[in-house]
Write a structure and sequence with these properties.
The protein has one domain. Helix content is 92%, strand content 0%. It has helices spanning 2-16, 20-34, 37-112, 115-124, 127-136, 139-149, 151-166. Residues 43-101 form a coiled coil. This is Magnesium transporter MgtE intracellular domain-containing protein.
Length: 167
């Protein structure tokens, strides 16, 4: 079978004008390709492994693309959150400024009130607001109000007022 194939190949080479040595090399390559059963089995296994590797590589590339998309989405969400955080901080700062302005107005009102009446009202206020109002009042007026409050509450407000003045 190999001899007849070789003869046919030689005739074809001679007819087509291709060099004889090239035809012999092709024949030897064909013979090498066929090889043993073990070689064919190894070649099949290698081809299968190569295909699996190519598929895994495609999967990895796809995962990289997906991860990059997710990373972009997370970065965008972080940017959005930072914008929102800055807006909240700005709103809180504006709220604090309005509260301080209102406390300053209240302090001026309490400065003009009778100290006994101001003391009765301040006793009913929460500690932080009372301290804020006393802190905004003139020292003489604040002293009169504290004198009218009397007792333990006046002592606590005085201590907090002193701390406020130090800050």
């Amino acid at each position: 079978m190999k001899k007849s194939f070789f003869v046919v190949l030689v005739l074809l080479v001679l007819v087509s004008g291709v060099r004889f040595s090239s035809a012999v090399e092709d024949f030897q390559d064909l013979d090498t390709e066929i090889g043993s059963v073990e070689e064919r089995r190894l070649i099949v296994q290698l081809n299968e492994q190569r295909k699996r590797n190519e598929e895994q590589l495609k999967e990895i590339e796809q995962k990289k693309i997906e991860l990059n998309l997710l990373r972009s989405e997370v970065d965008k969400k972080l940017d959005d959150l930072n914008v929102l955080r800055r807006q909240v901080e700005q709103l809180l700062a504006e709220k604090d400024a309005r509260e301080l302005a209102k406390i300053a107005e209240l302090s001026q009102m309490y400065n003009k009130m009778d100290s006994a009446q101001a003391a009765r009202i301040i006793q009913e206020l929460d500690r932080e607001l009372a301290i804020g109002i006393l802190g905004g009042m003139k020292a003489k007026s604040a002293g009169k109000v504290l004198a009218n409050i009397g007792g333990e509450r006046a002592a606590r407000l005085s201590a907090a007022y002193a701390t406020l003045k130090e800050d």
